[in-house]
Write a structure and sequence with these properties.
The chain is α/β, with parallel strands linked by helices. 32% of the residues lie in helices and 21% in strands. Helix 1 packs across helix 2, helix 7 runs parallel beside helix 8 and helix 11 runs parallel beside helix 12.
Length: 405
Amino acid sequence: MQIYVVKEGDNVDKIAASMGIAVETLIYDNQIEYPYRLAVGQALFIGQDSEKFMGGVYWPREDVLKPESGYPVSRPLLYASGYAYPFIQEQILENTLPGLTAIYVFSYGFTMEGELIPPSCNEDWMLAAARQQGVRPVLTLTPLDSGGHFNNNLVSVLVQSYAMQKKLVWALGNVMQKKGYEGLDIDFEYVQSQDREAFAGFVDFATQVMNLFGYPVSVALAPKTRRDQPGLLYEGVDYRLLGEAANRVMLMTYEWGYTYGPPMAVAPINMVRRVVDYAVSEILPKKISLGIPNYGYDWPLPYVRGATKATTLGTLEAIQLAIDHGVEIQFDELSQSPYFRYWQYGVQHEVWFEDVRSLKAKFDLVKEYGLGGVGYWQLMRYFRANWLMLDELFDIERGERKNMG
């Protein structure tokens, strides 16, 4: 696998010839649309020769063989998951599922009485599509109230009431059995500091019950860098206790750059590394999935705190913006993230997004720390090069579907 960065004067024919691949392959893998325009600074995925992949092992070129043995290098096993709403486009879901171990359906909520609130759209078709491709459908539980708003008061009421927990877990089990879910994900944000141990206790209770019926339980964790980190997002999240309670955790390593914040990388690798450093000191690495953003942001400038609002966009949308406005895509080495600026209707904009370079930096981090998986927020856009690269670097975990590991 290689990454090619477009230079001035490049075109798809010239790049394909220099890299020894078919033009059609280059265009398809990178979703380059007719008339095949490119942006200077755009990073392109160049895959390995498919004939060299046999029996789950790549036979690489001689220069990348293990020198001491000459044998091919095996790929690590990876748990690949991602969140998706039930209104995801059918074609996007169909294209994405082959790269996943599990798909996390977003989301079920609950009431103060411990009753479940289903997603706004029926998700049965998603579950059927996932099962057809051997992917585990996982029910995501969030503190979403009957008005459709996230309410952290619901979390406090739940974790302090054992009766409510029993009622909710029983309801979850009934829905999972009826609809064919194969796991539970608990995604609670802004847990209050006084609920720290009680929240871990609820996750432990849910895990014990669900595991009896063959359902693994995962929990999403705010991106902490130390145990005593202050802030509403962090104080109620105990990495050690939650890592012990759940079968798997997902680090929410994104949103440094966010809708109302200043322009910056969504998931700068230097900050992501700090979170992983702390996480592996508290949780077994194989239990950890690294959160990866499948989106970027476009900020109008100048940025004014409390007034500026960024718009969300995908990788392909960002690249197309750079092409349409004739600007070069830059790459920040510290954050390992692409960005660019452009003018429109007299307003300058700054865009930060993910490309194959920033994604590979995250995959390399997974390998370096021996993490067990990756988890995408979210899957509503399809970036083919991500999945091709993931396939070349890792073996996606399959096999027994109700696996407690």
